[in-house]
């Protein structure tokens, strides 16, 4: 500021008024100061700005998932791209990090807020009786939940109807003639997993279907292991629904390695469509939605919340079923291997 003041022939106070867009200088002087600041490559100091007006000029996202699964998880990559695409409109950085557990995540929020490192956070993967919600309310830290508005307290949520998506899948499979349907779900502690599980079980009962759910961690390894275990059952499912695309691709590969035909012997459905679903053969039927737009909507909501606006929940469009080659009517050879009609060992 001193350098700019000397070059412009004005006081440091005048420079401060101009750079912060406050009254106190004439418009020609303001333009001259801004031109010199640009020429000198001046940038605002975020720490100083936080001290002066309490704003950090950044938002935060903490993800409590294993790095090995996050690195190949298209959902989060698309979500983050949507968030960042919106925040870049006003040059707001996204502070992204990972946590070992919820206690570490809460400690990070307390530290960020005490130091004014961020102006608000995106809260993902809500759990039952989530310990983060009351802490964020106590801190008064602006936050937007990306997920269903259940157990969110006073925090606004951006969400889509998972229960409606589950029903769309099961009704489609039932119309094709499937009566034994399994689901490879995500971690049971997650709120969205609970919502999907309740919808899956309830809808299956209504439709007169035999259903089974196996818990996994979204990784390809557990998706494949769960698939082999399901298909080793004396009465295996004729269709399997997976809670993410990574598990669905691994499940497809596992079924084919057992000699099963997809979809004649077993149909496969993935949650959250991605490029992965179209790169395999047959291409995967999937629940599709614009995840980047979902992230952008959450970013706009957090910007408004951090700006002091009191906002309610906003519902995004529910996922729609995109039908591809991995789903069809159950064939006569369902549950059998090509060639010998035998099933190999069960995976525990």
Automatic annotation (TrEMBL):
Residues 1-53 form the HTH lacI-type domain. The keyword Transcription regulation applies. GO terms for molecular function: DNA-binding transcription factor activity; transcription cis-regulatory region binding. Keywords: DNA-binding, Transcription, Transcription regulation. The keyword Acetylation does not apply. It comes from the Bacteria. Residues 307-348 are annotated as: Disordered. Residues 328-338 have a biased composition (Gly residues). PANTHER family: ALANINE RACEMASE (PTHR30146:SF155), LACI-RELATED TRANSCRIPTIONAL REPRESSOR (PTHR30146). This is LacI family DNA-binding transcriptional regulator.
